[in-house]
Amino acid sequence: RMATAVDSEGTTLADFVGFPGVPQIGLGLAALGRPGYINLGRDGDIAPSGERSVHVMRDRAHQVLDAAYAAGVRYFDCARSYGKSEEFLADWL
Length: 93
What we know:
The chain is mainly α.
């Protein structure tokens, strides 16, 4: 069960979503497509800086996408400003 934020008028996020079939949770790909976006622990999470080739980053992004999809995530956020995120998502799809 997800926690829901309620404002002073009793409005929740669900009141704004309100469309059947709209995912309640998504995965942003900024940190996967542009590793400089992460500033703590990235050596253990993506790969050490000397090993952050596009191939290594793509493989790690696909692992995360696989895990997210298996967990029920169906909304993925990417943009040109997120480095290679669009390319990695397109390859995964």
